[in-house]
Amino acid sequence: xxxxxxxxxxxxxxxxxxxxxxxxxxxxxxxxxxxxxxxxxxxxxxxxxxxxxxxxxxxxxxxxxxxxxxxxxxxxxxxxxxxxxxxxxxxxxxxxxxxxxxxxxxxxxxxxxxxxxxxxxxxxxxxxxxxxxxxxxxxxxxxxxxxxxxxxxxxxxxxxxxxxxxxxxxxxxxxxxxxxxxxxxxxxxxxxxxxxxxxxxxxxxxxxxxxxxxxxxxxxxxxxxxxxxxxxxxxxxxxxxxxxxxxxxxxxxxxxxxxxxxxxxxxxxxxxxxxxxxxxxxxxxxxxxxxxxxxxxxxxxxxxxxxxxxxxxxxxx
Length: 317
Ligand SMILES: [Fe+2]
Description:
The protein has 317 residues and is of the alpha/beta class. Helix content is 39%, strand content 16%. The structure holds fe (ii) ion. The site of fe (ii) ion has 2 residues, from loops.
């Protein structure tokens, strides 16, 4: 008996992804077509770090795609990552032995129109002009922990404690919701300034209801007159030695010019490759953005101190 040939992939790569399907799916499809490696993936915004750590002695997934540096560091510190053997063509502050950045995202301000023309820095959030006018999501969200960890690196622990205490006093309401909810609060007149990731601006522009909020809220890249805006990364880490080769193929693919352009243009993130232009939408916002080039590993070291201070002053309470 002759069996009809059935097409099947010779190899499979299993991915745990915290990145949203909409963005990552077209890229992964292309990876399959290019390499003949089948991609199987699980998407979740919560719980993947714990899952990876639980599974670390018998990893189920080959790689982890994270939307934040903290989670990459969490799994690295738990010993659940495989060391990378090669240096990738991204700036050194965007990679380590345990992970590589794939895109950069800036932590920005959204401000009510009256502040739209000010040059503002993170340090200005504690100014009297913002008393009772600041909105943010939980201080303990990884995006904020990373930002505060960068402030700790620049100013020291005592400074940060004072800063967060004053910032808490400047809040218009208890930390709540996500980054976009804060822009809605500016629209509603609850606050004048909020902290959020830059790409949400473009996501809101594409949403009928949320676009309205931006009539009363403008985006500002902080610290442009000094060290630059704090950047976080989305990134990738390897979880399994046996499949290192195909996992490294995926990294190489996601760092290719073509994939970096997709990231730049589809989600308006900043490419990690300096040679890839930012999206035209970002350019329309005013051109070049200056980034803080603080080593992300410094942020890693400072996270536990930040969490301790936030808890001591009951920042979210
Ligand atoms: Fe996000």
